[in-house]
Amino acid sequence: MSVYILVFAGALVLAIGMTPAARWLAPRVGLMDRPEARKIHLKPVPRIGGVAIYLAVLAAALVLGEWRNFHEFGAILIGATGISFMGLVDDRWGLRPLVKMIGQALAALLLYVSGIYVGLFRHPLLNLIATVLWVGYITNAINFLDNMDGLAGGVSAIAAAFFALMCSFSGQYLVGALSIAVLGACLGFLFYNLNPASIFMGDSGALFLGFTLAAIGIKLRFPDNVNFVTWMVPVLVMGLPIFDTTLVIVSRLRRGLNPATTPGKDHISHRLVAAGLTGREAVLTLYVVSFVLGLLATFVTRASVVEGYVVGGLTLLAGIYALWRVERPPFFRREETE
Question: Are 232 and 167 spatial neighbours (Cβ–Cβ below 8 Å)?
Answer without folding.
Answer: no
